[in-house]
Amino acid sequence: MASKIRLEDIAKQAGVSTATVSRVLNDKSLVAPETRHAVIEALDLLGYERPEKLRRRSGGLIGMIVPELTNPIFPMFVQKLQTAMSLQGYTPLLATQLAGSTTEDAYVDTMLEYDVSGIVFLSGLHADLTANLDHYARITEKRIPYVTINGANPALQAPDFSCDDHFAAALAVRHLIHQGHTQIGLATGPTRFSVARAKSEAYLSTMRRLLPNVRPMQEHTLYTVEGGQLAAAALYERGCTAIIFASDVMALGAIRYFQNMGVDVPRNVSIIGFDDSRLVAFANPPLTTLHQPVKAMADAAVGTLIAMINGEKPAFESMKFPPELVVRASTGTLRKN
């Protein structure tokens, strides 16, 4: 090895005892998979070379097709998916989509050539209710199981693991009403995407139930900083004192727009995001947002996929996960001017 492994350093990094580290390094049994992974991760983070006995061959490849990685929520999903696969002895094969680059169906063909055991689709074409779904049929014809995350599509017979948008809408709207807001808007993506449509329908039903005399206000735009800015301008002009955004990136774009316009957040307008991606707690102001349970979603998706790979009946076929409202400084009590 390039350097001698100090058990104390590994134990401190992994949050376990030195005895546990020793058992993992010597490939002993009686160590939980999560603990084993934590020790191996500590080895990697501290720059140690893994002992030969820990360099096991993969049980197979699992493909992951994800959108661009500039939105922090997607790397978070990738990390948790990779961990869940590694704990089960599989190696992830990652494909990232970029505008103008390789298409999802081309990535599928490549993964089929690599003889993957299964595929995870995150916020892909399965979420587009107008998309051509022929490549999903090709996967099924090859008898390769796949699952989707955040984008249930009734035309596909695949398990889907998504956030519960109705629960999310109720949480966000109730929080804003509690702070005195009634002119509450929603900014989300184009309604051809199932997640955008679900959020829109959930927002409308919640508003009609809780504020039956108030007209709902929506903007459908892109899941980008610029999309958030455009939606913020339109909804504020229409009289919104609070806006719910379908992603943290959009919400941060809105905050930047309001700051440039001299509109105080949250004194003049309250902002709620969606995802609870990394660093939003350090925004100015820190962003109130709906936390996606990324680890739970990734674990369930991978567990179901591996059960399908093994020819077993999964414990569950599809799941909706309730998000958690994380209240920070971007929302506040309505102030009468």
TrEMBL record:
<dbReference type="InterPro" id="IPR028082">
    <property type="entry name" value="Peripla_BP_I"/>
</dbReference>
<dbReference type="Pfam" id="PF13377">
    <property type="entry name" value="Peripla_BP_3"/>
</dbReference>
<protein>
    <submittedName>
        <fullName>DNA-binding LacI/PurR family transcriptional regulator</fullName>
    </submittedName>
</protein>
<dbReference type="InterPro" id="IPR046335">
    <property type="entry name" value="LacI/GalR-like_sensor"/>
</dbReference>
<keyword id="KW-0805">Transcription regulation</keyword>
<dbReference type="Pfam" id="PF00356">
    <property type="entry name" value="LacI"/>
</dbReference>
<dbReference type="GO" id="GO:0003677">
    <property type="term" value="F:DNA binding"/>
</dbReference>
<feature type="domain" description="HTH lacI-type">
    <location>
        <begin position="5"/>
        <end position="60"/>
    </location>
</feature>
<keyword id="KW-0804">Transcription</keyword>
<keyword id="KW-0238">DNA-binding</keyword>
<dbReference type="InterPro" id="IPR010982">
    <property type="entry name" value="Lambda_DNA-bd_dom_sf"/>
</dbReference>
<dbReference type="InterPro" id="IPR000843">
    <property type="entry name" value="HTH_LacI"/>
</dbReference>
